[in-house]
Design brief:
- The termini are far apart.
- Helix 10 links the parallel strand 12 and strand 13.
- It contains 13 helices and 13 strands.
- The strands form two sheets. It has a seven-stranded parallel sheet.
- Helix content is 37%, strand content 17%.
Length: 398
């Protein structure tokens, strides 16, 4: 019998070559698929893609209007012209009544990307990540692409390479900037202009009213990025055992994808007078009456609840598969960890057994302006700052 020996170095090289070959084939097939989609999608839009020399904003739809509006409002007030493009027919941006704005509906997302891939503009600002990764390509006729952060969260939960091909990014906090710089160094990717901007939608948010606090609010995410699937029943048992009034607010997707889990929770705890499942569409009641929030360490609501409602937060940390996410390449933990050191606490799944005492420890922490300034730039004034930063970049382009 003949045995072949391959030294570890050669073996590793062969594996890398094989992976590279598979990835090349995969991306080629995917690119062909998107080209076919774009060929048919592009036949819908009858307008122009030529906004040469202009400042262009692109939004995927109305859900991002509260991010764009504080910036656009400042531009209009200062008589600065811009173009607003959207992939949503119901986007409020299409109703902007100003001589300084030209707004256009491009069609659905695929149709919009077909237009954007051939866009002619001096600068394009967007909240859409993964430029030049999937079906949105950099246009050779756009001088500068700028990413406008649409949430105060760090970049850990974004897909890999989400920001690598932007020329600039308007960042939420120092942690955001540090992590982008680390990825640039490790990947030897282009060095971006990183601005200290903040989160623009906070400009439109009012702080929560000081109402009587009644319940412990449990508001997890869903799926494999939530502790609640495995440990939710234990948490509820321990809270109710110590006579806490509990309001459980499932993630909207849970009503679709986790019906069995909700049925189990309802069956087991539904008759307890201290327990309620919140089925309201909005979260006003849930937040206004909450003494403490318990959620996942990956939750997107941690910042909003801390800064606007000033409700102490307990976040349950757990192992999740971060393959394919920026988290897998980042050295530092998500920035929520540092926020919770100042206003709340991060716990392990095992510490759920001691949740009663932990609630007592965090209930007295107070949110301060110093804490807010440490964790977010330009709180409730980011729209004005973003507009000035964008204009500064725009004027500096040749």
């Amino acid at each position: 019998m003949l045995f072949l020996y391959i030294d570890p170095g050669t073996g590793s090289l062969l594996i890398s070559l094989l992976i590279g070959f598979i990835m090349t084939i995969t991306f080629s097939i995917r690119n062909f698929y998107y080209k076919v989609i774009h060929f048919f999608a592009g036949k819908e839009y009858k307008g122009t893609n030529d906004f040469s020399g202009e400042l262009v904003f692109f939004s995927e739809g109305k859900n991002y209007w509260n991010v764009f509006y504080p910036v656009l409002d400042v531009l209009i007030k200062h008589n600065k012209r811009f173009v607003y493009l959207t992939a949503d027919r119901e986007d409020p941006g299409l109703q902007i009544d100003s001589e300084y704005c030209s707004s256009h509906y491009l069609g659905n997302t695929n149709q919009a990307f077909f237009v954007l891939n051939k866009l002619k503009a001096k600068m394009c600002i967007t909240t859409t990540p993964q430029l030049d990764i999937l079906n949105w390509k950099r246009s050779k006729n756009v001088d500068h692409y700028c990413y406008l952060s649409h949430a105060p969260m760090d970049i850990h939960a974004n897909k890999k390479f989400s920001f690598d091909y932007y020329d600039s990014a308007l960042c939420g906090n120092d942690f955001h900037i540090a992590n982008l710089r680390q990825l640039e160094r490790d990947r030897n990717s282009r060095k971006k202009i990183l601005m200290k901007t903040g989160c623009t939608y906070y400009d439109l948010k009012n702080e929560g009213a000081n109402e009587q606090k009644e319940h412990i609010l449990i508001a997890p995410t869903w799926g494999d990025r939530s502790f609640f699937v495995e440990h939710g029943e234990l948490l509820l048992e321990k809270l109710l055992e110590h006579k806490h009034r509990v309001l459980y607010r499932p993630h909207p997707q849970s009503w679709i994808s986790e019906k069995e889990l909700l049925s189990i929770i309802s069956s087991k705890f539904g008759k307890n007078e201290l327990f309620e499942i919140d089925k309201r569409v909005d979260n006003v009641h849930a937040l206004s009456k909450a003494k403490v929030l318990i959620t996942d360490s990956t939750s997107g609501i941690i910042y909003d609840v801390a800064f606007l409602q000033k409700i102490p937060i307990i976040a349950v940390d757990f192992e999740w598969d971060d393959g394919g996410y920026e988290s897998s390449d980042l050295e530092n933990p998500p920035s929520t960890k540092y926020l919770l050191e100042d206003f709340g606490r991060t716990i392990t799944e095992n510490e759920i057994y001691n949740i009663h005492n932990i609630i007592g420890e965090v209930s007295n922490v107070k949110m301060t302006e110093e804490i807010i300034d440490k964790h977010i730039f330009n709180f409730q004034n980011a729209g004005s700052v973003a507009a000035k930063q964008i204009l500064s970049i725009f004027k500096g382009l040749k």
